[in-house]
Amino acid sequence: MSETIEKKRHHVVVIGSGFGGLFGTQALKRADVDVTLIARTTHHLFQPLLYQVATGILSVGEIAPATRVILRKQKNAEVLMGDVERIDLSNNTVTSRLLERETVTHFDSLIVAAGAQQSYFGNDHFAEFAPGMKTIDDALELRGRILGAFEQAELSSDPAERERLMTFVVVGAGPTGVELAGQISELATRTLDGAFRNIDARDAKVVLLDAAPAVLPPMGKKLGEKAANRLRKLGVDIQLNAMVTGVDNDGITVKDKDGSERRIEAQCKVWSAGVQASPLGKQLAEQSDGTEVDRAGRVIVEPDLTVKGHPNVFVVGDMMSVPDVPGMAQGAIQGARYAAKAIKAGLDGQEPSKRKPFSYFDKGSMATVSRFSAVCKVGKLEFGGFIAWVAWLGLHLFYQVGYRNRLTTVISWFVTFLG
I need a surface site. Which of 107, 186, 277, 371 has the fewest CB within 10 A? Predict the structure, then answer.
């Protein structure tokens, strides 16, 4: 079954309901346009807090409100659920599919914010044994694996098996990996302390692996070392210059800097080492003469975030490759708002050639390490500890959607961190 959607007013199609898609749609609220947001999920995912769902601090509803509910008061916007299969730049159409229903949506302007997925660097078979952290399903799967490992250890009488079951390996020492490693450690030493009768949850071992020589490389040596020292105090075993060469049900194989290989027996593994942009980026590049994608599949866009030869097609968020713009929420939000502003200026008669290039304003970066401890970098200012942790809490609350979600998140944090 196939349907075609066309609008009478200028029609803006937005692909993706992440930060780029949602903020781009909201930025067009008062514009003389019709907006159709096409998404493969029913919710807007606040991905920076996904690891807290995986470790049981927050519930799904607190970080994944329904997109339709968020946009219900925006009268010029509609939500279309479906997985985008094709973008046709010559006919200005987007083809999406929901089950057996195919929908072809015409656009006058297009904002592509389809995001990215976990990258296993050509070893996609690792995913079965080491899930990533990109979706709600990933987080719930990981939560089940973490708690399930403790439950299996409780039933085991074999010391070697117990050690394997209570060893948790996090691959990737970026912000997600650091936050997850710290939280698993605190889960074992605080939350689950005394909850079992045959095992001591505090005996759990958390290993943080990375092929790079430092923790949190983008944040610099000083903050990386501060985060690493805090993790070590929590008991996390940090192993750098360690490249993963194999993953199976019972453990992980690592190749060290000197070329030697070794084995880590572990029941629960999680992958946070890399990302790969949506394959829609490659589709756009193939239809645009001169546009290329980088190694991560991101589209190398024009200065105005468009695809070469198509000034009405914008690429934002994790799908765009722009020098000095990190793949974080702020890059997606600023890019989407820029695209919306350019569309509105076009409606007022501005020629695409007159657009000012996109300029990213770096508001800084931060990562939480544990309860009461985080690291933060704002320009040349670098600091860590309790003040950085409070700043991290405040920033993430600010960007959460809806007062109710903010309130329930604060309550959950209060119970978890102060209880």
Answer: 371
The residue written with tokens 């780029």 in the block is 20
User: Could you give the C-alpha distances from 174 to 127, 157, 272, in angstroms and in order?
Assistant: 18, 36, 8
Burial of 185 (0-12, 13-18, 19+ CB in 10 A): buried
- Between CA 262 and CA 388 the distance in angstroms is 37
- Single out the catalytic residue among 3, 141, 179, 261: 179
- Residue-wise pLDDT for 326-365, tens only, equals 888 999 999 999 999 999 999 999 999 999 999 999 989 9
d(CA 160, CA 146): 18
| Residues 6+ positions from 216 with CB-CB distance below 8 Å | 173, 174, 175, 178, 223, 224, 227, 367, 375
**C-alpha count within 13 angstroms, C-beta hemisphere, residue 291:** 28
Each residue's pLDDT tens digit, 101-145: 999 999 999 999 999 999 999 999 999 999 999 999 999 999 999
> What residue type is 202 in one-letter code?
R
- Nearest alpha-carbon partner for 291 in 276, 312, 306, 275: 306
Cα torsion for 314, 319, 323, 324, to the nearest 10°?
Answer: 110
Is residue 126 within 8 A of residue 271, CB to CB? The reply is yes
Strands 275-277 and 268-271, sheet pairing: unpaired
**Dihedral over alpha carbons 356, 357, 358, 362 (to 10 degrees):** -100
Instruction: List, in sequence order, every residue forming a beta bridge with 83; answer none if it has no partner.
Output: 97
Q: What is the dihedral of CA 75, 80, 81, 85, to 10 degrees?
A: -150
Predicted TM-score (pTM) of this structure: 0.93
Our answer to whether residue 179 is catalytic in this structure is: yes
